[in-house]
């Protein structure tokens, strides 16, 4: 800007100086020429007056007169009669042509005193001719004075040189002054421009310091106020945006906002996870190109149509089926026209699984309770109908009723135990010697063992104590060993303990019937039995392995199952020592 302003100032100054110089030159040169002509005319009149007072007796006297006064006044004097003949000339001795046709001569013969500027072919230069009429007793004609303009030209040349020097000096001074003043004038403007650039780069701490009280100074002060307000606004917006982004990022539900054209306005990371299509999501993309789900599309269409919040449920197909709940809300301020739709997409797969588990649990518990209760009621009815009188039959029926009642008691106990473990109520954690725990469980279950079944366990002498509830750990081993004993007719059950990478690793391996691959993923489900006939016959409730899994999760461990049908099954459990110390 300074350069443009400087050039415009300089152009204005040059134009002004040029016009002033030309006008001055024209006026001055015209004035000099006019003054010279007037002076020459006055000089001619004076010579004419002298001529009228001088007596002439011969032509030689005319020559003497023009020579005398020509030298005296340093001019060329010519005497011309009324016929235009040159009587005498101070500069030329020979015969001269008739001058009657000359402009100044013609006017003088008419009685006018005039000055005419013309190029002289005789003298080869520009002359000023001043002619006055003269009339005496002996002469009637014109006296003409001719002066070259060389003198005036020298004067005008000097004047022109002085004018050029003056204009040049004025131009130099004007250029310096323009540079100084444009610099002073544009300095605050340049500061404003630099400050604007820094603000555009994100630096809102810039301030302009100026003492200028003109419009530019007001601009600078207004800019400072604007920069301060902008900084506060940006800070506030940044903070609010960070808070909003933090809230959206921390939400497990997917959040996406779309405009009336269904183009994405913003979204959070959870939406990308729920989408799970591998497609890159960007603001401005159409929702239909990145997320294909009937529940989502139905919610969007209904919100746009009704302008009210709606809720839809649907499923997403992928590596595994998942379920979603879509809540759609119109986007816009209260009382104003909505400009889009806000979608909150929740993954309710776990909720659906829990609902299914609850239904299955109720169904399974009902079934498990119904079977022994039906058996008990049947035998009681039989006893009431007369079988009680037969002692042997009655005792056999009572034994069956006792077994079924025991099964009911065990089932209820397992359900209560499972509920207690799931509630994470495990207040007692003390250092427990796992070797002693295993030995006590083996001693407890040994009487139930078969003759052809051997339980092998070698205590580890340098095994660190594990912080836990001893009863929980015993329940874990009881269920694992009891399960192994039920499904192993003959062979061995091997129990191992060891430390591995700060984990307590427990192993129970049998040589029983094994588990088929289809059943392996489901063996920890409640009431699931690999062999229902065998389990019922041996009094199993179907909750043993589910209890084991929940105890392992209680101590932040993990459980692995390896099994080959017809060869046996191995359970490997890893429990972190550090987690065991936490309460």
UniProtKB/TrEMBL annotation:
Alphabetized InterPro entries for the sequence: BphY/WalK/GraS-like, HAMP_dom, HATPase_C_sf, HATPase_dom, His_kinase_dom, HisK_dim/P_dom, HisK_dim/P_sf, PAS-like_dom_sf
PROSITE patterns: HAMP (PS50885), HIS_KIN (PS50109)
GO cellular component, one term: plasma membrane
EC primary class: transferase
Catalysed reactions listed for this entry: ATP + protein L-histidine = ADP + protein N-phospho-L-histidine
Keyword Ligase: no
GO biological process: osmosensory signaling via phosphorelay pathway
Record GO terms (molecular function): ATP binding; phosphorelay response regulator activity; phosphorelay sensor kinase activity; protein kinase activator activity
Keywords in alphabetical order: ATP-binding, Cell membrane, Kinase, Membrane, Nucleotide-binding, Phosphoprotein, Transferase, Transmembrane, Transmembrane helix, Two-component regulatory system
UniProt domain Histidine kinase: residue ranges: 364-579
Source taxon at top rank: Bacteria
Transmembrane segments: 6-25, 165-185
Matching Pfam families: HAMP, HATPase_c, HisKA, sCache_like
Its EC number(s): 2.7.13.3
Domain (HAMP): residue spans on this chain: 183-235
Protein localization: Cell membrane
Topology of this chain in the membrane: Multi-pass membrane protein
PANTHER family: SENSOR HISTIDINE KINASE GLRK, TWO-COMPONENT HISTIDINE KINASE
Name of this protein: histidine kinase
Organism: Anaerocolumna jejuensis DSM 15929
Taxonomic classification: Bacteria, Bacillati, Bacillota, Clostridia, Lachnospirales
């Amino acid at each position: 800007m300074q350069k443009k302003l400087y050039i415009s100032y300089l152009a204005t100054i040059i134009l002004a100086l040029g016009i002033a110089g030309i006008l001055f030159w024209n006026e001055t040169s015209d004035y000099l020429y006019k003054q010279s002509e007037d002076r020459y005319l006055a000089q001619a009149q004076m010579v004419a007056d002298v001529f009228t007072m001088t007596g002439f007796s011969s032509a030689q006297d005319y020559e003497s007169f023009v020579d005398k006064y020509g030298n005296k006044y340093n001019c060329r004097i010519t005497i011309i009669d009324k016929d235009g003949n040159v009587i005498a000339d101070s500069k030329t001795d020979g015969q001269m042509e008739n001058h009657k046709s000359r402009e100044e001569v013609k006017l003088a013969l008419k009685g006018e005193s005039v000055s005419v500027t013309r190029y002289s072919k005789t003298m080869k230069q520009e002359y000023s001719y001043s002619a006055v009429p003269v009339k005496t007793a002996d002469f009637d004609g014109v006296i003409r004075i001719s002066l070259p303009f060389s003198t005036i030209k020298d004067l005008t040349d000097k004047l022109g040189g002085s004018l050029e020097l003056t204009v040049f000096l004025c131009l130099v001074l004007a250029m310096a002054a323009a540079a100084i003043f444009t610099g002073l004038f544009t300095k605050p403007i340049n500061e404003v421009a630099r400050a604007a650039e820094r603000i555009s780069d994100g630096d809102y701490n810039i301030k302009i310091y100026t003492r200028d009280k003109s419009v530019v100074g007001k601009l600078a002060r207004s800019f400072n106020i604007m920069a301060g307000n902008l900084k506060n606004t940006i800070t506030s917006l940044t903070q609010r945006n960070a808070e909003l982004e933090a809230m959206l990022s921390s939400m497990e539900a997917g959040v996406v906002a779309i405009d009336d054209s269904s183009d994405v306005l913003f979204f959070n990371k959870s939406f990308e996870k729920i989408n799970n299509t591998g497609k890159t999501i960007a603001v401005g993309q159409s929702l239909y190109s990145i997320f294909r789900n009937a529940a989502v599309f139905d919610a969007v269409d209904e919100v746009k149509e009704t302008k009210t919040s709606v809720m839809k449920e649907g499923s997403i197909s992928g590596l595994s089926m998942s379920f979603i709940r879509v809540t759609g809300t119109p986007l816009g301020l209260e009382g104003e026209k909505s400009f889009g739709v806000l979608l909150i997409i929740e993954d309710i797969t776990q909720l659906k699984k829990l609902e299914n588990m609850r239904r299955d649990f109720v169904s399974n518990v009902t079934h498990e309770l119904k079977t022994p209760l039906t058996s008990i009621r049947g035998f009681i009815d039989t006893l009431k109908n007369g079988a009680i009188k037969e002692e042997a039959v009655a005792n056999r029926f009572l034994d069956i009723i006792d077994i079924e009642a025991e099964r009911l008691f065990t089932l209820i106990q397992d359900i209560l135990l499972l509920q207690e473990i799931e509630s994470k109520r495990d207040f007692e954690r003390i250092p427990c010697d796992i070797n002693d725990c295993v030995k006590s469980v083996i001693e407890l279950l040994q009487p139930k063992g078969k003759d052809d079944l051997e339980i092998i366990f070698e205590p580890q002498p340098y095994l660190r104590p594990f912080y836990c509830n001893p009863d929980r750990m015993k329940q874990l081993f009881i269920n694992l060993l009891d399960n192994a004993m039920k499904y192993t007719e003959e062979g061995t059950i091997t129990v191992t303990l060891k430390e591995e990478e700060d984990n307590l690793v427990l192993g129970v391996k049998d040589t029983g019937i094994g588990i088929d691959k289809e059943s392996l993923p489901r063996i920890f489900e409640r009431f699931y039995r690999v062999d229902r006939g065998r389990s019922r016959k041996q009094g199993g409730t179907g909750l043993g392995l589910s209890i084991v899994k929940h105890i392992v999760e209680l101590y932040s461990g993990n459980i692995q199952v390896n099994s080959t049908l017809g060869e046996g099954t191995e359970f490997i459990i890893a429990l972190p020592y550090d987690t065991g110390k936490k309460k």
